[in-house]
Amino acid sequence: MSRKITIIGAGQVGSTVAYALTLKQIASEIVIIDIIKEKAMGEAMDIRQGTPFIGPVYVHDGDYEDAKDSDIVVFTSGVGRKPGQSRLDLTQTNVDITKSVIPQITKAAPNALYVIVANPVDILTYQFVKTAGIPANRIFGTGTMLDTARFRARIAETYKVAQENVHGYVFGEHGDSSFVPWSLANIGSIPVDSFAKSYHGPKLPDFDKNDVEDYIRKSGGIIIAAKKCTNYAIGVTTATLCEALNYETDSVLTISSMLDGEYGIKDVCLSIPTIIGANGIKGRLEAPLTDSEIESLRHSAECLKDVIKQVNF
Ligand code: APR
């Protein structure tokens, strides 16, 4: 395998993505670019020096021209959320950073797949699609992949079943208007709602859907309040997305992309289950949702469109 991945931003998230990609051996070359060159150099050197115990991955820092021939570019440059700050508060700052990076990186790597991680991820993904001159099927955000992982982990924890037996997705904005379409959620093929009733075994704990959704929405904020950033779960989420891009076998992932009429929604980036593989997005799935779930998705789209109106791209 010969895959080159460039990461823009050597902060907590960018460097953890580089480390997760290295541990998973998803790339043969990883380039780290940051406006603070010394930071990129230090992170790359630190990760590279562990590679004799991992495998032949060449991790180094670089400038934009070093991104030439990248298969994937991961975008993590931006200011992180401060404790108590919402993702949308830092929108204009991160839009401005994105604006300055887009021409430089797209000139160097016009044929790459672009993975947007920086927040607000749905807005920055929209900005990329609208302004980068790269086909929309090659640009996507990590979206609600992490929220979906949190959802599966929470259900698995509650019912003490393996996470891989929990199926379901978080839809919408990666943020406050995200929601779980419970009509699609199941454990070992049994709808989550019927799971407890169908279970012949030790008594199961009570379970409240609102608590689960609250837990998903608040997790990022709780972690930031405790340790000032989130990096590990988003690092491995991003590496998993990059891994899916290595294969011709397509995956279903809740990544953020430009909707084109699904559920009557257009001209906004948000997450619904999306088919993705080596050439980027192949298609999106319009899963059968209940009327109120469709309403929630449209509400999420409206929240994002409100922000889009207020931002200067
Ligand atoms: N070009 C390149 N790198 C830049 C630029 C730029 N124009 N502006 C800022 N950076 C770099 C910073 O120098 C810093 O190293 O981006 C990095 C951001 O790192 P952190 O401040 O540690 O932020 P981090 O926690 O990594 O979060 C980055 O990812 O998950 C999201 O919400 C998070 O939007 C945030 C992003």
The gist of it:
The protein is α/β, with parallel strands linked by helices and 313 residues long. Helices cover 41% and strands 19% of the residues. The two termini are 37 Å apart.
Which features would summarize this protein structure in a list?
L-2-Hydroxyisocaproate Dehydrogenase, Chain A, domain 2, alpha/beta, 2 domains, Rossmann fold, 313 residues, binds adenosine-5-diphosphoribose, 9 helices, six-stranded parallel β-sheet, 12 strands, three-stranded antiparallel β-sheet
What does this structure look like?
- This protein has 313 residues and is of the alpha/beta class.
- It has 2 domains: 138 residues, 3-Layer(aba) Sandwich (Rossmann fold), CATH 3.40.50; 166 residues, Lactate dehydrogenase/glycoside hydrolase, family 4, C-terminal (L-2-Hydroxyisocaproate Dehydrogenase, Chain A, domain 2).
- The protein contains 9 helices and 12 strands.
- The protein has a 6-stranded parallel beta sheet with strand order 3-2-1-4-5-6, with helices on both faces. It has a 3-stranded antiparallel beta sheet with strand order 7-8-9.
- Helix 1 packs across helix 8 and helix 3 crosses helix 4.
- The protein is globular and about 60 Å long.
- The mean pLDDT is 95.
- Bound molecules: adenosine-5-diphosphoribose.
- The site of adenosine-5-diphosphoribose (APR) has 26 residues, from helix 1 and helix 3.
- Its EC number is 1.1.1.27.
- Belongs to the LDH/MDH superfamily. LDH family.
